[in-house]
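so ive been stuck on this for like two days lol. basically i have the seq below and the ligand is 2-acetamido-2-deoxy-beta-D-glucopyranose, smiles is in there too. i just want the complex predicted, nothing fancy, no docking runs or whatever. if the output looks off dont worry ill sanity check it later, just need somthing to start from for the group meeting slides
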Amino acid sequence: MRWLSVNFLLSALYMMSANLDSAVNGSVPEEHAKVLRDILSPAAKVYYPNSTEFNTLSARWSTLAEPNVNVVAVPSTEDDVAKIVQFAKKANLPILAFNGAHAAITTLGRMQGGIEIYMGQLSSVAIAQDDKTITVGGGTSSKAVTDALWNAGKQTVTGTCECVSVLGPALGGGHGWLQGHYGLVADQFVSMNVVLADGTLQTIDENSDLWWAMKGAGQNFGIVTSLTSKIYDIEQYDWAIETLIFDGDKVEAVYQAANDHLSPVPVNLINWSYWLNIPGADPDKPVVLFYIIQEGATTVNPAYTKPFHDIGPISIEAESGDYRDLARWTQVALDSTPCQKTGLANPRFPAYLKEYNIPAQKLAYDAFAAEVSGDSPFSTSIFMFEAYPVQGVQAIDSDSAAFAFRSDNILTAPLITYTPSSNELDQQAAELGNKLRNIVHKGSGSEELHAYVNYAFGDESPQNWYGYEQWRQDRLKALKKKYDPEGRFSFFAPVE
Ligand SMILES: Cc1cc2nc3c(=O)[nH]c(=O)nc-3n(C[C@H](O)[C@H](O)[C@H](O)COP(=O)(O)OP(=O)(O)OC[C@H]3O[C@@H](n4cnc5c(N)ncnc54)[C@H](O)[C@@H]3O)c2cc1C
Ligand SMILES: *[C@@H]1O[C@H](CO)[C@@H](O)[C@H](O)[C@H]1NC(C)=O
Ligand SMILES: *[C@@H]1O[C@H](CO)[C@@H](O)[C@H](O)[C@H]1NC(C)=O
Ligand SMILES: *[C@@H]1O[C@H](CO)[C@@H](O)[C@H](O)[C@H]1NC(C)=O
């Protein structure tokens, strides 16, 4: 009862003292921020722009077209998130959840002023008693889930990168090492708690009309404060990798081999490649870094690697370990370069492919090499080619989720990395990224550009992000109208 009355008092105070209508063009007057602090639970925090915490918690992975915030609110309970959303609604202030802060899509830059909801305190993992599901807080990192499950002899699909949150990738579909077995990260959803645009905290599952949308377009519909997902027994403890580095001249031979020799691709085999400058391997032009990863093995089966060895790599490195080593091997561990927030602009330009078009790979390589070599401002850029196994993804009915691109096999994206300095440079980066993307897309022979929303640059259309089928577009728009008519959750790849 005391709890009730204290809260009642506070909310009454908040209504009276805060002249909430006075919030002008997104800025958060100090007295509002104080009121906000008072309506949240004791362990919640509110930070102003002049504090170290504000700077740390609002730093983003890519500084291009960043959202600007005036205040950082750090909820410590799920209900705090609801309170913040209600407060912002009343004061007509923009809101945006920050989780791992790796989203680089330029639509986020439309947020100029408002409240960042930093999800970091909502980090928790609990494995259900029946060992069939895990419940995680809305701000939990992929690594926390992987490690907790591993210790219990369990696993599930998460993004590959240790510094990325569970929900960030998941709400846009979510690719991961284990998707060949179980499908996308979103395919694991069992139920979730989500704060909707009206400020209510609701538990939803497959019985909600919103369920479909949360699996691929979820960032548009609310803030997920906790998530229950399927988990599985670990069946294969061993993993092995071979990392091959090829001279750029070998690009055609490498992708010919990647296309050729495996059909269908085994569910326990993953290949990923990056084009990037490694001056120690080639001082003049980007190399092809090719990873072949095998589950359930301590060395990658030579039948898979021999065609690549025959091409004549500059170097071959073999390692073995377990699932937890994959992030380090592929340079997406917590201490790896891509996980650091160093003030760089990091736009990506994704396109899904069915298979590699060899002449297009060659054209793309030549264009990439010409633009990132020497003293180019883009010399640390990477062209990524991610070929995860797709059996688990394709086994699931395509209509079951807003994620629209289950029939694609390879996720490609140039990542144009640079130190931001001028609009001209931003413009050049966008032109380069789009030029490279267009080459591989044209090579696919497909009219439709399928762009993974979680890698998107921001200049794509809702068709590119959420599929060309009219029913998908109609369904997303209808749900948006029903659940978020004012577009409060429309900074990340808005459905319209
Ligand atoms: C190094 C690196 C590795 C990556 N690896 C993978 C990978 O293996 N697989 C993959 O699929 N993708 C991967 N990605 C892409 C990744 O899915 C996106 O960058 C994603 O947006 C990152 O999520 P985040 O929490 O770090 O970012 P954030 O910017 O914090 O969040 C992304 C968006 O989701 C919203 N959001 C975050 N949390 C919630 C929540 N709880 N409820 C509602 N909305 C929320 C945010 O408001 C924001 O709009 C990778 C990206 C990087 C930079
Ligand atoms: C709107 O915001 C801008 C940038 O934060 C600021 O310079 C300007 O004074 C604000 N306008 C009003 C009317 O407060
Ligand atoms: C930071 O800003 C707050 C609110 O505007 C103010 O009360 C505080 O004195 C400032 N602190 C510093 C160190 O400038
Ligand atoms: C690499 O992945 C692609 C796409 O899934 C596949 O076609 C190819 O056979 C794979 N090759 C190897 C060597 O794993």
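Confidence is low (pLDDT under 50) at residues 1-24. The chain has three domains: 2-118, 125-234+479-483, 239-461.
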